Amino acid sequence: MLALVLSVGPAAKAAVRNWAGTGADHLWATALNWDVGPVSGDSLVFGAALKQINTNNIATSILGTFSGLTLNASGFALYGTQLTNSVGIQDNNGSNSINFIQTLTGPVTITNNAGGLTTTIGAAITNNGFTLNVTGPGNVTLSGVVGGTNAASIAPTQGSVTTDLGFSGTLRLAAANTAALVLDAALDQFGQMLLVGTEAAGNEGGAPR
Question: Which of 97-101, 126-130, 165-169 has the highest mean pLDDT?
């Protein structure tokens, strides 16, 4: 009798794909705009200051999920097809905006490491009941609805937007959000929150200013 032994290797790590911006247009599906074209599960890095206003037109069957998005220069404005965010967004320079709809598949953190500058999330985030955390010394504006605006949303009010001890900027909420807000007690000392529009906000910890 022959024994069949299957060896299962470790799970593949997310590949890092770097925006090059050297194509003839501003579209993500153009091969020359990347070092290697991204697919679902890849980590996306925007650092080359070329074609900074660009649009995701890659089919969701090819790129539907990203495992982290990093911005290493200022002036980016990203638009296009909805994507699923499984890790988070890190802005190392500030003055950038993410303007495509996002759906969360787990707890996600938005980090702005550029003090005094702003990271803007300009479209809706469907949290699917998961926590969206904001941290870093820079400012973060959520100008889209957080909580869910489409049929894919599952119990959006079970999710939350939180700040932590590392957040010392301004969290600006500028839409009719349905997610709960959980503010670290240190927010009074290190950061502030501005509410613009209609908010269903539960404040646990620091007080909004």
Answer: 97-101
Question: For the chain, how many structural domains are there in total?
Answer: 1
Residue type, 31: A
Say if 152 falls within a structural domain.
Answer: yes
Q: Check residue 171 and give its pLDDT.
A: 74
| Residue 205 lies inside a defined structural domain of this protein | no
At 139-159, the pLDDT tens digits run 988 888 787 543 333 333 345
- pLDDT confidence bin for 128, thresholds 50/70/90: confident
Q: Which domain holds residue 180?
A: 16-195
* 40, two tokens: 């679902």
Is residue 5 in a domain? no
> What span, in angstroms and rounded, lies between the C-alpha atoms of 153 and 165?
29
C-alpha separations of 99 from 8, 131, 146, 179, 182 in Å: 39, 20, 13, 19, 24
Q: Which residue has the higher pLDDT, 158 or 137?
A: 137
| 204 falls within a domain | no
* Contact partners, residue 60, CB within 8 Å, separation at least 6: 81, 82, 83
- DSSP string over 97-131: EE-S-EEESS-EEEEE-STT-EEEE-S-EE-TT-E
